[in-house]
Design goal:
This protein is of the alpha+beta class. The chain contains nine helices and 18 strands. Helix 1 packs across helix 2. It starts with 14 loop residues before the first strand and ends in an 8-residue tail after the last strand.
């Protein structure tokens, strides 16, 4: 078997389309970490079981015994106690979650800049369970792009304009414009109800709870407030009497700012399970992402699971090398993954300042 690492090139053959979703064929990968202070003194098995809970305790016992987990590139027994800064290698059979199979369209390219239209459901860069199923990974595989540096970020479920610099120096110049408040940002959203016809400005602090993956609005200036100042301008573009298309201009850049400000106005994004309700299930109790924990339509999840069993021409799923130690095989995606890859009706349209401006076409739901 061939073990991949973060420097291994990503190729078109690494992907497969199943039921309208882009899957990554499972592959062997070496994760490398160094022992943190809080891990020091724990047995190697207890440390992995406590910190990486997506696999059961028994898996880590077998992984240590078989040499899939090494300390300083050497085998050890399950009672070995780790020490700060030691190098840990974990060799896994990696299964990545699926994303929507929409193409990443290159909008504009020049010597120092590349802009694309990011489909919903795809993270921008390597994070969590995603490495190849990312915007950067797919661009590398399908367009053979060189090194790219994200100028700004979009949440995984958000679609629209992404700006990449082709050098760290150019990226820093863009980021300075953003941090200095010189950049104007425009989004569109599809929200519930008839949004007011006149411009609405929300100036309310936003507090992000990293444990729950959810933001709340703080309207009162309390002495112990944890919220950060946030302001968004909203203008209704159209309405059909049931929902509305709204232009959103965030003047600050807080986590989930547009989503939680729209909830505060009683016009949440129409398919935003996390903010459609005041008290969705907590992800700390349910596991997974905050958005997946908030989903309550079980039939939708079942349909998504069923779709994974067929490829576009109704053949059965493609075969791939099974790993007897893997806790995810024989599935294409990781076991325990709740399907939350449909994306939000929230789309980035434009980033601009006095010296430059980049735009992205509107999505079908906003046209």
């Amino acid at each position: 078997m061939e073990w991949e690492n973060p420097d291994t090139p990503i190729l078109p053959s690494h992907y497969i389309i199943v039921g309208g979703k882009r899957f990554v064929l499972p592959y062997y990968f070496e994760f490398i970490a160094h022992v943190k202070q809080r891990w020091s003194g724990k047995t190697i098995v207890d440390m992995f079981a406590d910190e990486f809970r997506q696999r059961p305790y028994e898996y880590y016992v077998d992984a240590v015994r078989s040499g899939r987990i090494l300390v300083e590139d050497k085998k050890c027994d399950s009672e070995y106690r780790v020490r700060t800064t030691q190098k840990l290698s974990h060799f896994v059979h990696r299964h990545e979650p699926p994303v929507l199979a929409e193409s990443i369209v290159i909008l504009h390219e020049e010597p120092e800049v590349l802009t694309v239209c990011k489909p919903a459901s795809i993270p921008v860069h390597t994070c969590g369970q995603y490495r190849k199923n990312t915007v950067l990974g797919i661009l590398q595989a399908e367009h053979n792009t060189g090194p790219l540096f994200p100028v700004h970020r979009l949440d995984r479920l958000v679609s629209g304009l992404l700006i990449f610099a082709k050098s760290a120096v150019k990226a820093d110049k863009f980021r300075q414009d953003i941090e200095n408040g010189r950049v104007r940002k425009v989004y569109v959203a599809k929200v519930t109800g008839v949004f007011p016809e006149e411009e609405v400005v929300v100036n309310a602090a936003v507090h992000y709870d990293a444990r729950e993956g959810r933001s709340t609005v703080e309207v009162c200036e309390e002495q112990d407030s944890k919220g950060k100042e946030a302001c968004t301008r909203f203008v209704r573009l159209s309405t059909d009497g049931v929902s509305s298309i709204v232009e959103c201009k965030p003047l600050t850049g807080r986590t989930h700012q547009i989503r939680v400000h729209l909830q505060h106005l009683k016009h949440p994004i129409a398919n935003d399970d996390l903010y459609l309700h005041e008290n969705p299930p907590k992800r700390s109790k349910r596991g997974g992402t905050a958005d997946s924990a908030a989903r309550s339509d079980m039939s939708r999840q079942q349909q998504a699971q069923d779709s994974r069993r067929k490829v576009d021409d109704d053949r059965e799923e493609p075969s791939f090398e099974m790993d007897p130690l893997c806790t995810h095989c024989p599935r294409l995606g990781p076991s325990g993954y709740d399907d939350d890859s449909d994306g939000l009706w929230l789309h980035c349209v434009q980033y601009s300042c006095e010296e430059w401006s980049f735009e992205c076409p509107l999505p079908a739901w906003a046209s």
